[in-house]
Specification:
Length: 553
């Protein structure tokens, strides 16, 4: 389509021309890429889920069928669809179906609850919501039925699962019903490759998650190059155990990168050793993506002895900082080479390379994957940091966004005038030329790879009647890296316990991973010289307490 989506900040024409000329952007939509893979790989197995094996040909046919059905429902190009599907093949059918008709998935995570989903539906004015009926004991249809009366844009519920309640559309049934020929697709309008294809969510440092528009062109380059850098070949068997809607298992190289090579995607419900090890053995999984907390679980699991994991060649670890000690245990205990991945939904991906010396594999978070990735490391005044010194990483390139969707005020802060994204990460260039992630300047908690905005949690805690003021900070945790700690000044005479605070917050319908795991009641906050709450002091305080309690070393 020629007109721009309102609220989307495109790449400047000059940069876009350059990316096309250099062949990074191929000018082909994700739907057309899928058709090409289906033609090329036909009867090869594309997706494995439980006992079911789905060939490329079948995958292509199912995507077309679902596309026809959703178009017949009236879903049109550029309509937004909030997707909260877990690791089920319906995720792939529906996302490619939407890419084909030019409708725009908004990739929510299974852990999101009422508060986040309501916000996403409202903010994106979504016409449809897609989810499993139930996952990990939580009923998503009940949840969205609570939300729907307040969100007039929402017209369709697209649900995966058996025995569905009335009033929802079953994605499974769409496959068995005749093609409604919705394929007269929405008046024949087709997306163009420079259009937005879908939205990822930012980890977010502000009150609410930001929407990250990824175009067909930029995302294909993202997963295509990532597939090269991680050595995906037609024989690769890639396990998806993290939530598939996250950029890491989706496109770094993730499901899409693996499908682009005629290789095999294996879906698992969870990365826990109990669930994942039998799948790794049975399907002869060769590579997978982990957050460090999952790696630690795998390394420490006694089940390692029970299953044959010997096909595993490559373990990609990212999302939060992997310690060198854990990295060094991977090869001896799991037989796989570690690949550190330092990425972000906004774009830039850094990888270590399998042939890097051990020291580099264990101690660095890799280097930008594209020769066209531009990076700058700046000090607190915005000047280039001295070589080898830490500073904030800024980046720009052929798959890094130029702005969040409909967020002009935030964009003015998050991007430089010449279009560099301020990552909020503090990095250093090591002697090897690779980056080392040393810390961050953004106010968030990275709980085992799940990003939690301090401000978002603070706003919720402040609603509790006993709370006068709150500061949310990260506290160290041996497994997850960080957890949420709440420092609270209570109102006079008020009594507040962690349990009570958690219940109160849970009742507001927020993801459980955002709930504080420790409450520190204080009379005042330490202040910086300019009178702001000194979170640095609070982080040091809680770390000292945990050390004194013997909970960390
Ligand atoms: C990935 O993406 P997001 O958007 O959930 O989070 C991005 C942030 C980064 O800015 C950084 O703060 C942190 O997560 N991060 C890491 C890291 N990888 C991500 N910090 C230290 N070491 C690492 N290896 O997390 C993501 C997206 C694609 C691939 C991999 C991870």
């Amino acid at each position: 389509m020629t007109e721009l989506l309102e609220g989307f900040i495109p790449y400047p024409a000059e940069a876009a021309d350059d990316y096309r000329r250099r062949g990074y952007w191929k000018g082909i939509t994700l739907g057309d890429h899928l058709d090409e893979w289906v033609k090329r790989y036909g009867e090869r197995i594309a997706v494995v889920t439980g006992e079911e094996r789905i060939s490329y040909r079948e995958l292509g046919a199912r995507v077309d069928h679902v596309a026809s059905h959703v178009a017949a429902l009236g879903i049109r190009p550029r309509d937004r669809v909030v997707m909260q599907l877990n690791n089920v093949p319906e995720f792939l059918y529906l996302s490619f179906a939407l890419f084909k008709i030019g409708a725009l998935p908004v990739m929510a995570l299974p852990a999101h609850r009422e508060t986040e989903i309501r916000y996403l539906i409202e903010f994106s004015a979504a016409v449809a919501y897609a989810a499993p009926l139930e996952f990990r004991g939580f009923n998503y249809v009940d949840m969205v039925r609570k939300i729907a009366p307040g969100t007039p844009s929402l017209k369709h519920l697209l649900i995966a699962g058996d025995k569905l309640p009335p009033g929802v559309h079953s994605i499974g049934n769409m496959l068995s019903q005749p093609d409604p020929r919705g394929a007269a697709l929405a008046g024949g309008q087709r997306p163009s490759s420079s259009d937005v294809a879908f939205f990822l969510l930012s980890g977010g440092t502000t009150g609410l998650p930001k929407l990250i528009p990824r175009t067909h062109d930029d995302y294909e380059y993202n997963f295509d190059l990532a597939a090269d850098v991680s050595g995906v070949s037609a024989d690769s068997v890639y396990l998806i155990a993290l939530p598939i809607s996250h950029n890491f298992p989706l496109g770094s190289p993730g499901a899409f990168g693996v499908l682009s090579r005629g290789a095999r995607v294996v879906l698992a419900a969870s990365p826990s050793p109990e669930t994942a090890f039998p799948v790794v053995e049975r399907e002869r999984v060769t590579m997978t993506a982990h957050v460090p907390a999952v790696t630690i679980q795998w390394l420490n699991s006694p089940l390692r002895e029970k299953y044959n994991l010997s096909w595993l060649r490559l373990l990609q670890v990212g999302g939060s900082r992997l310690s060198a000690e854990v990295a060094a245990r991977i090869k001896p205990l799991l037989g796989a080479t570690v690949q550190q991945v330092y990425g972000m939904a906004e774009g830039l991906l850094n990888f270590t390379h399998v042939n890097d010396p051990q020291e580099v594999l264990y101690n660095t978070q890799g280097r930008p994957m594209s020769p066209a990735d531009e990076i700058r490391i700046v000090d607190w005044n915005g000047n280039p940091a001295a070589p080898g010194e830490p500073g904030e990483l800024l980046t720009r390139g052929p798959y890094t966004i130029r702005g969040y969707y409909k967020a002009p005020e935030h964009n003015a802060k998050a991007f430089t005038e010449d279009g560099f994204y301020r990552t909020g990460d503090v990095v250093r260039v090591t002697a090897s030329g690779n980056l080392s992630v040393e810390g961050r300047v953004k106010d968030l908690i990275n709980r085992g790879g799940e990003k939690i905005s301090a401000e978002e949690v603070e706003n919720l805690v402040l609603r509790h009647p006993a709370v006068l003021n709150v500061a949310i900070v990260a506290m160290p945790d041996p497994l997850l890296g960080e957890k949420v700690c709440a420092y609270v000044i209570a109102r006079e005479q008020a009594i507040l316990s962690l349990e009570e605070l958690r219940q109160f917050m849970d009742a507001t319908g927020i993801s459980r991973f955002k709930l504080p795991e420790r409450l520190e009641l204080v009379e005042r906050f330490p202040l910086t010289t300019v009178g702001k709450i000194s979170k640095k002091d609070l982080r040091e305080d809680i770390a000292a307490k945990l050390r004194a309690e013997g909970k960390i070393s």
